[in-house]
Amino acid sequence: MSKDIDALYETFRLVLELSQATARLEQFSLEPAEIDDLCERHARCAARDAHHAPVPAQPYPGHTTWYAGPRDGDVYWPALLRQLEGAAFANEALTGLDDASSRIVANLHHPKEPTFSARGLVLTYPQSGAITNIAAVVSKAADRGYRIFIVLAGIHNVFREQVNQRLTRQLVQPHPDRWVELTTSQQEYTSPLNALPSLGSGMPMLCVVKKNATVLGKLARWLAQASSLLHEYPALIVDVDADLPSAASTNINPRISNILHTLPRSAYLAYTSSPLTSLLLEPGATDLFPKDFIVALPRPPHYTGTEILFGHGTSEQDDPEQDDDGYDMIRLIPDQDISDLRPAPREAVTDFNPSLPATLRQAVEYFWMVAAARTVRASGTRHNTMLIHTSNNATVQASFLAPLKALRDDMAERLGSPDYLAYLRRSWQQEIQRVPAADFGQQPVDFDELIAYLPTVLQHCHILTNNSSSNTRFEKSPYSATIVVGGGTPLTRGLFLEGLSVGYFVTASSAYDTLQQMEHWFGFRPGYGDLPRIWMSEQLSAWWREIADTQIELRQQLERAAIENISPLNLAVQIRSHPKLRTVTAAKRHQSPSSVSYGAKRVQTHYFHTNASWLRANLEAARSLVATAADQATHTEARPELGRYLFRNVPSDAVINFLATYQFHEKSADTDPSLLIDYIRKRITVADSLRQWNVAIIGKPSTHPGETLTFAENITVGRIIRSRLNVASQQPDFADIKTLMSARDAAIDLAGDINNLNEQTMRAARRQQLPHTGLLALYPIDKTSAPVSAKTHRAPLNAEEHVIGVGLVFPHPTTTDSTV
In 680-694, which positions are buried (b, 16+ CB within 10 angstroms) versus exposed (e)? Predict the structure, then answer.
């Protein structure tokens, strides 16, 4: 070779995207062999980057991965990295941030392409450092030549200020002479035309604005004034909270689209912490849909997620009775307390005078003891926050200020009373016994240790409101603060509350609002992971659990889509048609799914009535199915020593008749029998699939007559144990066992060694061995079902009759899936 390929390659990377780079290099009189060598080098680097990518993503057709990570000569990313290292970020956290942000940048267009307009989505975890990830993406994009960075930070001033403050500190302050800031934490984008000369400086520009029609209009007019220069400045628009506002209910997203269309080289990057984002549930509602790529960030190390309250998802279990059901951190607010917490008729707001019911007093007292206990431990953030949300009305929220301050003053006075101290001691000891501190690497704090700090906690505790009518600001402070805050919408949308440890909720107008409340409760809790508690109504508790499980399943579906190379549009269709979304979106502000698909899904019953007549009817339905299956199956595999039977190739009519007879609990929206039956019939008609089913009985070995259940002559198995969740409920005749079907059960009809299959290999094996066959599993559950462990989250089932659980596994559709 006549030239040094290593030296040429760095030039090659800086030119343009691949197809244009080769044409340009020909003009430099390079030999064809040299150009081929450069292209091969690029292909190897791109493949290496894709192979080591730590997060799943769907690149868009024709896209070549051009970003292989930081390199010598970068300015902005090294500055951010040094700052994070100085803030004592763990090495594993920094490695994860570096890998994840590099993968996101690699999915963007090369900034030297003459025109581009990309749309992408980043799925994060709630309170997991999304702003720092955004700072990393912006810094790396700036190092490669992106120059305009517009960050859309919610709809409230307080959140925009928080985001602007963070990005200024992380990006601008290390190199203030290398950035142009169009906004600050104190001043939003009010006079954009004054910044026009800055555009010609060539330095990256940072603009953090609310998703507000007036502000976005000013920004669009400024860009129109600068249209002659925009071709020189690649732009990245980052939406910190892409789910707000809803694409279907506002005119904000069209304004964002208009700005993007003004920029000839631009990318829109939407961040969301929920697969239930409107961008995926309503893919046709806006051109902001992430048509090009979706990146799911990995779970950060030491992150606390939904499992802290609810355990792992129902689709992940190998042994449901040994399942981790989460920690005993939720306390129920009885219905009779709610009338004291908010006015029933809206017109009664003006004259409403709240009283503090016992549950609210207990919650606030516990919070003050937590603040004192954290002082004893002297670890983690020093700030302590309690969030109270009883009403969306600002007047009602403000009305709690006086009684809460009175409670604070009263508690300070009563600390001298032996009786009151004895009451506080009992309360504290009861709470710390319900959540073992050792599980979080901590030692329990004795009441005698924390009592010394309670007077100071009470003396310096701030009680305030935060809503659209207040001027409260939550800025980072070097001084510790203890705050009881009541509020509305701003507190359910993205606002970060440091040291949040106690909550009191009775209000959520929809399951979607509930999702926003939940997001405050997950994140990093160094030094106090055992102390958070949440008081809430029974309805909210049920919504939280249902939404948490749905979120887990949808996130798993999104991650599988990356492995299976499913396009973002097809993924959106799959998510939108997920059966469990019928529960969530029925109360969600968005339109309910227009169709439901069970393709490749595993559904199971976990809600049951406990009365005898309901359960006996289901037992008869199961016996009828087994009798038909034993008669019509092409092959029967009997393993009585294991308590299992398998009937192969049972006609679909037998399954349909069973589904029409068996009574599913009305709360089990994902097992609606009419939808299940319609789906099966459509698959038979459209794809000649699901004509045959394998029917299994999954019991346990037993020779003692008192432990068995007979389905048919010579078909008797031992009853299994499925205890109920020990969740206080005002509903009689109801049990929730959370998980019926283990992951291994879904492979009972597969050939080979099924004991070592994981979720991915099991799904692959089903696609290969049984591409058109469904599985229906019957579970004989003992009516008493005392828990096999000492978990406080479990209680005996105590049904009036033995219970029949049902699990269904549907094959992966080999053609376009049928929906109902």
Answer: bebbbeebebbbbbb
| 316 vs 724: CA distance, rounded Å | 18
564, exposed or middle or buried, with CB in 10 Å at 0-12, 13-18, 19+? middle
Tokens for 573? 């269709």
**Going by C-beta distance under 8 Å and a sequence separation of 6 or more, which residues neighbour residue 785?**
721, 722, 723, 724, 796, 797, 798, 799
Sort strands 715-718 and 708-712 into parallel, antiparallel or unpaired.
antiparallel
Distance of CA 733 to the CA centre of its chain: 31
Number of H helices, E strands in the chain: 27, 25
Let me know: does 375 contact 384? Beta carbons within 8 Å.
Answer: no
* Residue 62: closest CA among 242, 292, 289: 292
Q: Are the CB atoms for 603 and 808 separated by under 8 Å?
A: yes
Q: Which residues pair with 180 in a beta bridge?
A: 205
Identify the residue with better confidence: 726 or 132.
132
**Beta-bridge partners for 695:** 647, 776
pLDDT of amino acid 223: 85
Sign for the pseudo-dihedral over CA of 169, 173, 175, 177:
positive
Residue 476 has pLDDT above 50, yes or no: no
Q: How many CA atoms lie within 13 A of 401 on its CB side?
A: 13
Dihedral of CA 27/30/36/37: which sign? Answer: negative
Question: Would you tell me how many other CB atoms lie within 10 Å of the CB of residue 308?
Answer: 20
- d(Cα 576, Cα 293) in Å, to the nearest integer? 17
Mean pLDDT of the residues in the chain: 83
Residues 6+ apart with CB under 8 A from 45: 68
In angstroms, the first-to-last Cα distance of the chain is: 63
* Cα–Cα separations (whole angstroms), residue 87 to 80, 382, 681, 721: 11, 16, 59, 49
Spatial separation of the C-alpha atoms in residues 778 and 318, rounded to whole Å: 17
> Coil, helix or strand for 284?
coil
pTM, entire model:
0.80
Is residue 255 a contact partner of residue 217, using CB atoms and an 8 Å limit?
yes
Q: Which single residue is written with the structure tokens 């020093």?
A: 382
If one compares 611 and 192, the residue with the highest pLDDT of the two is 611
DSSP 130-185: HHHHHHHHHHHHHHHT--EEEEE--SSHHHHHHHHHHHIIIIITTSGGG-EES--S
Reported as a single tens digit per residue, the pLDDT across 218-252 is 888 888 887 777 878 899 999 998 876 654 456 78
Phi then psi dihedrals of residue 709, to 5 deg: -140, 130
* Residues in Cβ contact with 245 at an 8 Å cutoff, skipping those fewer than 6 apart: 155, 211, 252, 253
CA distances to 121, 334, 562, 564 from 534, rounded to whole Å, are 31, 14, 35, 39
What does residue 228 show for φ and ψ, rounded to 5 degrees? Answer: -70, -20
| DSSP-assigned beta bridge partners for residue 293 | 120
